[in-house]
UniProtKB/TrEMBL annotation:
It comes from the Bacteria. It comes from Mesonia mobilis. InterPro entries: DUF4197 (IPR025245). This is DUF4197 domain-containing protein.
Length: 216
């Protein structure tokens, strides 16, 4: 088996292709375990300012309109419901990520290792984005019913549309929250990837230490 020393003789670490790929897989597994799992918990999105789902542009005027007429608590409830749906859907992500990680080749690993600080996250985006969207979208739609978001937003939009001199709105919230949930998942993986690349203390296994020493 070809070794890393043959690919990068100046390093001389003597790591095999398999060890390099395993090191990258460990890094991605760590990101999923430590970051994505947090998003599935109650308030995982809602109280994380990096990924909290706010209102789409066409509904920001709805939020302002509600707050202007003393219905700020209703707007807050609606925003929380969107984040609850994202937290619910993210539980579907881990098996899809695991499959993408299993399929990683040595060339994938080499490109990630020598790529930018977000190369591993970009790899996962390319491998999983469409599948995750297809998985998240119906879950979020169902979750809207489960957490009451459909009724909350029907009530909110009805109230807003009844405010004098406002223009009626009817946005596709399921698609919007699906996209925002995906963005949140990749954001948290990217944070963990950057931590492993830049903080030696975060490399918690021998393989991680040896593999990422190659890019230091």
């Amino acid at each position: 088996m070809q070794t890393i020393a043959e690919n990068y003789p100046q390093q001389g670490f003597g790591l095999t292709q398999e060890q390099i790929a395993n090191g990258l897989k460990q890094a991605l597994d760590k990101g999923i375990d430590e970051q994505v799992s947090k998003l599935t918990q109650t308030d995982g999105f809602y109280k994380n300012q990096l990924v909290k789902i706010l209102l789409p542009e066409e509904l920001q005027k709805v939020e302002k309109g509600l707050r202007d007429v003393g219905l700020g608590s209703l707007a807050d409830e609606g925003i929380k419901a969107l984040n609850r749906a994202a937290e619910d859907a993210t539980k579907e992500a881990t098996p899809i990520f695991v499959n993408a990680i299993k399929e990683m080749t040595f060339n994938d690993a080499k490109n990630i290792l020598l790529g930018d600080d977000r190369a591993a996250t970009t790899y996962l985006e390319q491998k999983t984005n469409q599948e995750l969207y297809n998985k998240f979208n119906p879950v979020i739609k169902n979750s809207f019913s489960k957490v009451g978001a459909d009724q909350i937003w029907s009530n909110i939009i009805t109230k807003y549309n009844n405010i004098p001199f406002t223009q009626n709105v009817n946005p596709d919230l399921t698609d919007y929250v699906t996209q925002q949930a995906l963005d949140g998942v990749y954001t948290m993986i990217a944070i963990e990837e950057q931590e492993i690349r830049t903080n030696i203390a975060s490399r918690t296994t021998d393989v991680l230490k040896r593999v990422f020493a190659l890019q230091d």
